[in-house]
Each structure stands twice: as structure tokens, then as C-alpha cells.
Amino acid sequence: MAVTTERQGQVLVIRMDRPARRNAVDATMTAGLDTALNALDDDPELRVGVLTGTSEVFSAGTDLVHGAGPATSRGGEYGVARRRRRTPLVAAVEGPALGGGFELLLACDLVVASRTALLGLPEVRLGLVANCGGLFRGPRQLPLNVARQMLLTGEPLSAERAWSLGLVNVLSEPGEALRDALVLADRICAGSPAAVSASLEAVDACFAQADADGWRATESAWAQATSSVDSTEGVKAFLARRAPRWSRS
User: If exposure means fewest CB atoms within 10 Å of the residue's CB, which of 50, 168, 172, 205 is most exposed?
Assistant: First the structure.
């Protein structure tokens, strides 16, 4: 299965499990993530979700061969990116979280990352743009110029730098991100369920209009990027493992 779940008391661990494809998101994984997060929000016995990958990689983003499948009615892209949740979601990151994988992280409420994790938005190197929230959540959760550099160069950020900038809540030793995320989840569970839910919804409401504007800007940027031959060339070059030949280079 592309997505597995495990209940640990009041916590639901949601694991992306396509190691052969570096946990790239295809239609099956999108459906699995949507189902898992629906269960997280709909079960009153569940207080916190933890989204993680394998010990080697969080997620490499969209499966460029098969695509990520259609957006879901409750979650949007990947079944996650546009979801309005009532239950906190913690990312537990080992290894790379790139492209859509980083956007999955940005869609979570808290982030626990291994010191060896690597975070990035390499879409411009494919002739594309980040289209699952990275264009507006990145600049919101990081200093503006740091986010700009990631978006414009495609160069990744180390977990240690992300922690120093406030994006990562807990910096873990290698192999300990899930364990530390569960500790953080238990600390959330110590609070009032009603108060935690109300606090999460209030914070999200503060950014609702900004998110709506961000999605419109993203759709415009995506249309502009994909109207260029560079978007086709970038993906072809990536799959062929060669340097792209851009239209104006």
C-alpha cells in the first residue's frame, strides 16, 4: 500500500510508503492520504496526526511519470494541500522533502525533522513552479528572501538551517524524527480537545483570505509556466537525466 496508518493511542501515524519511487505521490498515494486524513478529522477519539515517510525519504513530490492524480474534494492536491483540518498534523521528516514533498510539510501544523533532512522546491529546474502551496506558504513560514532563494534557484535548505529560521519545531537526531514527533503529539494531547481544535481553526481562519489569494496567484503562475515549452523540456530532461535545453538559454 502507498499509504499506511497506525493508531498509537490518540495519535494516528500516517506513513507514505513507496520507497522504490522515493515516496513520490501518484494517484494511489493521493487517495490514501485523503482517506487517512478524513479518518483523522472524523474520529473524535483521534487527537493528533503524524505524517511521515520512510527512514530514507519523506517525499520527492509528484510522481513525474504517472502524476499525482486528481485533487480530492476535502483535501485538494495530494489530498492534503487545501484541507481545512480540525485536528493538528505534525510532519516527521527523515531524508529529502522536495517539491511537493516540501509542500506537504508546509501544509502541516508543526514540523519535526532529522538533522540530515533536506528541504527544497526544485520546480524551476524542471521548467515548472511550485503549485501545491509552496509559492505562498514558503514565504509565510520562512524569511521572505530565504523562500525567494529556494523558489528561484531550486536549491535546498538543510534541516538545521530551517530549524534556526523557525520552520522546524524540533530538530532530531537521524532516525528519531518519528519518535520525537510522537512525543510532541502527546504534549498536544495533554491539552483540552475543544481548546486545541478551536485554536487550530482560529489560526487557520486568520490566513484564509491570504490562502485564497495565494491559490489564485499560484494558478496564474502555473498557467504561465506550463504554456512555455520549457515545462515539457524540463521534465523530459529530468527523466532522461540530462541537462535541460531551455528555450532562451
Answer: 205
